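Hey, I was hoping to borrow your eyes for a little while. A protein chain has come my way and I'm curious about its shape. Take your time with it, there's no hurry, and the full record follows here:
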Amino acid sequence: MSLDNFRSKVLSNSDGEERVEVNQRLLIDKILARYPSEFVVFRELMQNSDDAGSSTVQIVFETASNNYQAVRNPSNPSKRLSLDRKMENKITRIIFKNNGFAFRVEDWNRLKKIAEGNPDEQKIGAFGVGFYSLFSVCEEPFVSSGGQGMAFYWRGNQLFVKQAQTGDDDKVWTTFLMDMREPLEIPDLEKFARFLTNSLGFTGNLQDVLVYVNDILAMQLSKKMQDPKPINITPDFNTFSPQKIFNLTLANVRCVQLYMKRLVIPTNMSLRQWISLPNDLQIEEASIFLRVVNGNLDVNVSDEISSEMERVTKKKPPSKTIIQMIYTGVDEDGSCNTDVSPIFKDLLPYPGQGKIYIGFPTHQTTGCCSHLAARVIPTVDRESIDLVEKTLLIYNGEMLRLAGTLCRILYENEMDQIAWAFNEKITNNTNNDEDIKSIRGYLESWAIYALTHFAFNPSTPNAQVGIITESQFFNCSKNILPILSTNGVLPISNVRIPNPAMAGFIKTIPVVPKIVFDQCYTFFKKARDTMKLIKELTLQDVFHELSSRTLSEDEITDLLKWWISYRSRGSFVRVTEISQFMQLARFGNNSRSLNTIRYFLNPTVIPSEMDVPVDVLPFNISKNLKKQDLEKLAGWSELSLINWAKFIVKKSDLERDPTFAKKVIQILGEGLSNISQTDKEIIQQLFSRKKCIPTKFGMKIPNEAYFKEVDLFSDLPTIDLEETTTLKNILELLGVRKVVELKLIFDRLVGQGNWDHIQLAKYLSSMSSNLKQNEIMILKDKPIWPIEKSSSRSKKGESRGIQRFVARSLHTPTDIHREFGLPLLDWKGEWASQSHEGKFIIGLGLQEYPTLMKILELAANHSNLKIRSKALRYFINNFEEKYSGDYDPQVDIAFLPCSNRGTYAKPSECYISSECTIMKFNAVSQDLRFQVERFGVRQHPSREELLKRLNEEPPRHENKAKTIFEYLASRQTVFTDDDFKSLTDLKFIPIKKNSRAKITLASPRNCFFSVQEELKNFFSCIDFGSKAKIFLQTCGVKNEPAATELAELLVSSSREVYNSLGNLEKYLDILRKIAFNFSTIDKPSLIAVMKKSPILIGVKKRSNGIETSSLALGKDIFINDNSAYQPVFEPFTAPVESDHYMKILYSELGCRSLHDSVQEIIRPIGIRQNNLDPETEELEEKIMERASLFYYEHPDPKKSIEWFKRLKVKEASYMETTFTLDNITIVKRRHTSACILQDIMYVTTKPAPLDIAEQIVKSIYKKFEWKNVFSVSVLLTEELTTLKRKGYPVDHILKQQNLRYAYQQSTVNDEKKIVIVTPASTQRLRNSLRDSIRSCNLNVGNINGIISQANVTIVNESKTSYCDIIPGHLLSHVGTIRDIKLYDTKIYQPEIMSPSVTVQLNHFIDILRDIANVFELVPKAVHIFYDNNSSSIAFNRDGALFFNLSYYIALHEQDCKIRPTNDAMTYWFMTFCHELAHNFVVNHSSEHEFYFSSFTETYMSKFLTMMKNRGIIW
């Protein structure tokens, strides 16, 4: 039965009708809770007064002392209180009066009805609850108007009224009397005055407000308005709102003055005090001038919107309305409103945001700096605009857009005035610059004021208000928004953002004035970055500026600074743009382009006052820029000294004006040290033929001039310049002479005869600094110097007179040189190498010490041993200073004495360490061992030399070998891995098997340090001590034979070894060593030979218990892995027992598995065809039921689970088994209780679980292992609950058991059999339903992600279902709230987690948790998903219930915002019942319908009880 039928059934019932009752006191209190603002009573009464056409309002605050009768007992309002002196300063009564039209009958009727608003569409009142704000301060208000009165009073929680004639003749005033519920403090008069003036801002009729305290006039407010002036609306404006609801037909502006006069109450004076002295108080008077802009709107709404608004607001929308704005222009704000009283501050929001007025101000801001008054529809509390209700959202949004249009009209009106003033006073002005500057400043302030007013910021509390208004502000006109620029008012798209770096040279491009940009930065940032209305200055703007005029030097400097900065920031500039920039940029009187410039000046190199080439940038410009910037980003280089020299050398003054020439030479000299040798040569060439050197005989070319110190001849033209260091350098470069030519010296001083070489040496040494290199070379090659007579050369040439030699052929005349017999320089007097003459001759080549080869020859070959020794000592002592630079350690002279007396050796053929002599190497004499390493003598022979000596001369004696091996061990670190590899097979170890045997040489590979005593005849065992062992072990000698050696031994001599050991266990120990290290045998050929050799032990066990063993081939031995087969055949078996490594060894060498080698065929005998034992049938069901468990953690079986679907179980009397091993066949009757042939399992009576498990393991697993047999046996016999505790996945089996049990117990099936309903059957059904729900609870926690179920066959009548299971790959778990898991079709940014559905989701969770509690379902059994594209409302997956949030939102959320409805709760209760029925039946069938109805009937009473407890039904 559907929900519609349920509802019709309830409504058709004639009984049970009741009226809904309302607690009026609580209702009014809740309404007042929506009015949280201060002075709400006066706001509502003043609004009603303005609606009633009032021009004047009076507000009277009466104190207890003034009105004794007003003091009431709060606990019993009908009783009066005696006067409390503490209450004299408190307000006990408020009287509010207005002079509007008197109450009409319909007004009196509405007054006593809550929520029935004013139907007049021109009035603001809409909800009919404003009057009831009076109850926030009083209990029983009284209203008097037009001679009638209405009194309100309470009876319990119900409010009553009485209306009657008052007899009052006053037809002017409508009065509201409010006796305070509790005495109140007098309001802060300044704060109250701010509220009242703020409220008068947009009133249409109300102009005067008088506030009394008792009989004292405490405050007076008045409002005066001028006649309106029209504002032009150009055709470019679209005056319609987007949906054409509103049309702006007229705009005007009027000036308004607000005046205030009030008493100033001192803060320390009580109410009683100042009331008694009102004439002594100070009176404050203040006024303010405002401009109120009005926009007249025609209203045209559709019938649909009109009727919906009437439903919501209880009145039709108006046909016409107005919107108003308060705008204070720069004049009003600056000149008229100086020293504004704080009372008026709320009416002047600038620079803050304005408020929206709905008659009176609300909390909602406008987003701009102007107040906006409009007849938009507020929320009930009148503090915000209703943008939630969909119809009011359209209406209010359309009106806000027209407010944006009015803002734009007002803004453009301001811009028009600024544009007129700019053109009139600046463009056409001939006044001086100071006047124009002052006018610009005023206009910029005006533009800032206007722009700030209409630069929108986020409005509060609802940001949408500002967004709507701002959007219309920019989109309502065809024209682009105008703004003030440096060139006047222009469209914003034609203006550029100012760039301080470009201000120095941008003069013609319109930019935003800097002060405007700075103070309106937020607006321009949004206009640039978000709205794309304005752009920064671009390179094209710069090109436009440069093409329009020639720049001054200051401007070109600023331009270059910007250009350098622009490019250094990484801005992309095309090559063509760089060229264009350099061509367009012109400066100076001659309008020179930057592309004509190549250089800039460095004043430290070339003074700025000197002439420079025309392609050099003026120094006045370049001095403001960095050198690296000019080079890198402008492409110019510094004017080099060489380029300037090429320019200046062409000046005629260089050869005519000595002063000019001196300045040029000075500049060249100062820069000479900083230029290359090539540039120096160029300068020398440029000036070498120029008469540019001032001398005492006039201007000379450089080669004709001499320095002043050259005074050898008086007629030399010496220079007329100060000889500073810098000048000397340049003059030397140019060729000015420092000495007279050497040829002349020889002609004058030497002549044709002999000369005193000592005097000549003294003269030349004094002039040595001025001699040129070629002159020095002449002196080096000239035979000037005589030899000492005692030398051998002098004796040969005595008869021919003085014989002279070049300096390099002689040595300094010292005693050691004489002792060595060297040719010496003939020198009279004492020789001094450090004298000027000595240094000069040595510089010409005189030898200060013997040459390297000479001193070594003396040390090696001299016949006098003392000279040999002295020469060697001289060489050692002077090696570092005199010989190390030329010395080569590979010298081919044997000059070093060795430890063997009389032996001399080359440095490369002897060694420092004496230990190497053991291998017949030369060791240097021990007194020299600390001095000869620097000559190239090594500590030890190299590894190559040691290897070579060991190979050529291996030791032949064990003692000698021990010493050599110990030495080699000390040198072991020098050998490489390759060296040791080469030694492994080198035969250098002396071996002597016994005392009679000869010594033979063996390689390390075949030697061992330790060998089993019985095997020493088979392996070489050595011992040369612990030190030698280190070296030999590295060479390859092993501690003992390894697996490979042992295997090779057995292959070659297994029987000899077996006989030698004489013990089976010792032989097995050898096999165990080989087995344990079998993986180290990396010789495939050896393993192949091992397989063919009888090296393994085979054991044969006889039935009589006797065991025999012998050597055998691997292929003849079996691994005994089936103890049942061994006594059948008694084959050779491997003695491996539990030794894993021995099993591997035997298997690798050809041993076979006995289990795999025996073919076993079991044949059932006496098969029973019919009448199977019930236990056998149960066994078949259990195997099928638990088949999936056999594959748990067995991912790669031999047969799949489908095989079990074909497996049948039959009974047999017994089993007969045939065993076959190779060619041997044996038939036996075995004591087994199960076997499997093809797809049939045969069992005997009461079969053993292990036998069954064994047959299953053999059938489905690729490898037979007994652990699997025991595992399968446990899985067949253990309780499912125990298996579940151990972690096995048995939930689906438990579920099937529950379903099978429920089905067996049910009384209804698909065949619709007639059953008898009894209490017992009914109880069984209920138990089944509870068990089904319990299975849902048991399934909690198992649903982490949805896995698609197997395909389900759907009955024909429901191929498409609203509870179809959604495939697992489409839903993902995205979160959990209050124990309910959430799913979505999206992993990233899922819809169900979106803030937009948070409220609806929590409502849905409340409903589902309440209903789940009815069924005693834990919340974790319930899941929520969101799929807007699916037809699934809910589905049941393995007992986990899933519900679609999107259907709840579409069907019920609108009605369930406050609390769930009866319809919604019933709908989802029935959905629960439907899905729970799927625990029994997957398909939609009559059986499913039966369970669905059963759930509904069983749990309906609990459901209704829950609904009553929740207050959903009564």
